[in-house]
Amino acid sequence: MPTLYVTEPGARIEKEYRRLLVVKEDKVLMEVPFAQLSEVVLIGAVGATIPALLSLLDAGCGLTLVNRAGKLRGRLMPAEARNLPLRHAQYLRSGDVQFCLQISQRIVEAKLKNQRCMIRRFLRSRNADQSNELQRVGTESILLTKKALDKLSLAKNLAELRGVEGVASRAYFAVLRRILRPEFTFEKRSRRPPGDPANALLSFSYSLLTNAMYTACLVAGLDPYDGFYHADAYGRPALALDLVEDFRSVVADSVVIGLINKCMVKRTDFERSSVKGEEGVFLSRRGLRKFLEYFIQRLNSAVFYPAAGRKLSYQKIFEVQARSLRSAIEQGSAEAYSPFLAK
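-> structure tokens emitted (343 positions)
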């Protein structure tokens, strides 16, 4: 259990000898040895004792707090010996326009190829009963993705590259929203706040994926906030978001599709409420438990990873990808970065 997610309102984490306890009203809900943890994520109204926090720090585990919508509230991280030469190199590369463009082209190429892979999976899985409309939209999306891939190397700057990516991604979402069970279809992406159950699932899945990639950046010694493709903005983990792109469709979207199309969630697992003044649709307590169970299962699932020549969990692959990006930074060569491609 590399990451422990705690969602029970009113619960708190406590320390007992070498174990972390999840306690509510003096009843132990869960206990996990510190040696088995790499991070703890508290979602919503969950507390922590000072001894538990200190023990997490001593064990080298980070603590992340997010609200019910998946929005980051803060992090507690162990003191670390920062690799200053690596950070200096990262900041230098982020100011190198050519390096940023080349790395970003590789990131976008992987994202679009993985989206195309997902579309083909959609169409194969629904081959027996898919409508003519879905066939048409899926075929059109694959064609637009091919055209976008052909244009990547011609982009002269990041603005042009983002434009090429945007066209292909809109075509991908046109397929995604049609592949979902009818009661979960949506017209467009709505983020802050999500306006419907499907968008609530997508937003939460992307938030947790970004948090996992943030941790991978730290493990690799990188600054999660200084990226190459995503624009720098105050409080925005741009580098973590760069790394998310390879996995957005094959991990986050895959979780949402599985939850909906396998009838693991229902519309009754959502509620309209306000989180920090934002009125929208959010997962209920029951829905959140279902989501996290499936999300964790996805992160722990093993897939063949060519660079290692064997199967690795997605959680481990995140770290390997961050280290691959680190190698590109240290070498000053975008070619040294090997994006993740789904099969």
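The chain has two domains: 3-76, 84-336.
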